[in-house]
Every structure is written in structure tokens, then in C-alpha cells.
Amino acid sequence: MHHFPVRIYYEDTDHSGRVYHANYLKYFERAREHVLGAEELVRLYREEGYGFVVYKVEMSFREGAIFGDELDIRSEVRRESDWRIRFLQNVWRPGGTQAAVEGIVELVCVDRDHRLVKLPESIRSRF
To answer: Which residue numbers are catalytic?
Structure first.
């Protein structure tokens, strides 16, 4: 399991004082970049012309985070096939007894022409 800390700033919230729902996707994205490795993602793009795109997202909201919270984005990775990788990503608030937000994000890999390609070997071998 990978842990990624996120601090909630005022700009993250909506008129109700809770984190705007779409911002959780940004937090998930940041956590995935740390799991995969920013250097490897840059290398894959520059040297091999590969990038990742979101294929599918599912989210369930149980409890909204608020300004000042220090969240823990917990990520687990599963390779579903040679073509698709799945991230189980949950948001935990301080002292929480259950995930505040639960997410499943599936990624596929594309080349520079945006054509679907198999996951690179460097990714397949890790997961």
C-alpha cells in the first residue's frame, strides 16, 4: 500500500466548506504519479512515446474533507491485464474509522498518436 499526504487548502473547498468533489481526482492523480514514479513517467514519454490515460473511474463519497485537514491517500495497484492497470484509491481523514472517499481508477497506455498499446514492460513487471 502506498501513502500520499495531502493538505486541504481553502482553495480546495466549495461554498459549503467541504472539498469540491472533482479535487479528489487531482489528489488521486498526484498519488498515482508517486506510485508509478515521476522519473519513469517522463522517461516513458520522452524515450518511448508512451503515456497513461484514464479509462474508467468510480467514486463513492462518504464524508467530505474540510479546510485544514491532512489527508492520507492510500493506493493499491493491480495489473488487470497487459493492457490495463487498476488503482484502488481511498481518502482517509485524520482519526477516521473508514475511508472518506473510495475510488477505483483504471488506466491504459497510449502512444504519441493516442493509439492503445500494451503497458510498458517496466510497468508490467512491477505490478
So the answer is: 14
